[in-house]
Amino acid sequence: VKQFKTVAIVSTGTEILQGMYADTNAQWLAQRLCGLGLRVVAETAAPDDAACVESALRFAARRADLVICSGGLGPTGDDVNCEILSRVFGAKLVYDNHVHDMIVERFSRRGVEVPTGNDKQSYVPEGASVFYNDWGTAPGWFLSPADERGVSGDDVVAAAAIALPGPPKELKPMFDRYVPEILAERLSGDLFVRTHTLHIYGYPESEIGTYVSQMFRARSDVDFTILARPMGIDLRITGHAATVEALDALIDEVERETVSLLPRNAVYGTDNVSLAEVVGDLLKSRGEWVSTAESCTGGLISKFLTDVPGSSSWFECGYVTYANSAKMLMLDVSADTLSTYGAVSEETAREMAASARRLSGTDYALATTGIAGPGGGSDTKPVGLVYIALATSTEVIVKKQVFLFDRELNRVHAALTALNMLRGYMMEHPVHS
Ligand code: ATP
Ligand code: MG
């Protein structure tokens, strides 16, 4: 039998094209199909119109070994997919007695006659493997490629087809009960699939792209994506292999190659790890402690750090000093510094970090002072300006950043930048035992 490597999804329903509901079937199907080791090469949505559905199916069939079509199998006049699918994929419709019995039984349980429209749902393409519907009325089915059925014709496409009903409550259980089993003998070799994610913080997406784009193009054995999220950049590596061992080896190799192309220590972690967890792990392994002195972030750095289970073995305390008086009273920031340079200044950030470190007795202290917005900016000190300081045993490093997000994200990025500074410092200064 023909092996399948690629699949195209066709969603049908006029309401999708009107924006009335989101095409969640396509997303769900894509996850399941990728999980089976298939490569999804196209996703299309077509309104309930015979010509539109037909051209969407032909487009999909040109690109993939298998076409999965959802929706349009219902009992009403606008549900035209069964006829179109059978024509495009080269099968005539035949009456299925078992489907008919199930529909009759379903309506009799409700104590009503079978409405006339439902009768057409008892027809399925000749030669199809039928997916009986325990969750609704319309059956789904799998139709093998035309040449395997001895069918040919100028307008018959070569791909195989799967039809599923549109309602997610029917589509999902039907897929899980029937599809993996029916595809099993056609999923060649590379059954194991995994996506490995590398997290990067503090670089523009375009810069990361320039480091890795050549490799991304050169390696056709893995899929790469670069995803810019509000919280940083994710490089996603998806590999396929015949065994778990081969898959691990492939992903390891590609990860090493990717990391070698990026700036040193640009990748802070992989898969589900957070920046704060990475910082915590480093502190813990070094037996070191951190404290914070926060103005514009209002405790967000402490929040991120204490989100990490076990943070009590490396996080000492956080000073939230919002007003000038609090900066003076709690952190000994000098009145002179505040009046000469202002609360939002390199000098204030420096004093905050140095004092927090001294007063709490920690190895490191992180400090932030800035203008989160939306108001409060000036020409020399615009909204989004933040000074972030790291105090260590030998120095205080201050970083000036201007964020262009909204208040919430400006604060989040000030906090993440602080965490990343500490991470970078520890990576560059390994402890020797
Ligand atoms: P029915 O027998 O209900 O008519 P059908 O197979 O003809 O089933 P559609 O008429 O296309 O399917 O869709 C029925 C309902 O299922 C839609 O109103 C919508 O709520 C849901 N649905 C259909 N397609 C999708 C999709 N792609 N994503 C999410 N929900 C969908
Ligand atoms: Mg319908």
Plain-language structure description:
This protein has 433 residues and is of the alpha/beta class. It contains 14 helices and 17 strands. The protein has a six-stranded mixed beta sheet, with helices on both faces. Strands 14-13-15-16-17 form a five-stranded mixed beta sheet, sandwiched between helices. Helix 3 crosses helix 4 and helix 9 packs parallel to helix 14. The longest helix is centred in the last third of the chain and has 22 residues. The mean pLDDT is 95. Bound molecules: adenosine-5'-triphosphate and magnesium ion. Magnesium ion binds next to loops.
Q: What does the main sheet amount to?
A: 6 strands, mixed
Strand content: 15-25%
Overall 3D form:
elongated
Largest sheet strand order: 2-1-3-8-7-6
Q: With helices defined by DSSP (H or I, 4 residues minimum), what is the helix count?
A: 14
Query: Oligomeric status of the shown chains?
Result: single chain
Query: Radius of gyration, rounded?
Result: 30 Å
Give the overall pLDDT as a whole number.
95
Ligands in the structure? adenosine-5'-triphosphate, magnesium ion
Extract low-pLDDT stretches: none
Structural class: alpha/beta
The level of helicity is 25-40%
- Measured distance between first and last alpha carbons: 61 Å
Total DSSP E strands: 17
SSE blueprint and pairings:
Elements: E1 6-12, H1 14-17, H2 24-35, E2 39-46, H3 50-63, E3 66-70, H4 81-88, E4 93-95, H5 97-109, E5 123-125, E6 129-131, E7 140-143, E8 160-164, H6 168-183, E9 192-200, H7 205-218, E10 222-229, E11 232-241, H8 244-261, E12 267-270, H9 275-286, E13 290-294, H10 300-306, E14 315-320, H11 324-331, H12 335-341, H13 346-360, E15 364-370, E16 385-391, E17 396-402, H14 407-428
Parallel strand pairs: 1-2, 1-3, 3-8, 13-14, 13-15
Antiparallel strand pairs: 4-5, 6-7, 7-8, 9-11, 9-12, 10-11, 15-16, 16-17
Helix pairs in contact: 3-4, 9-14
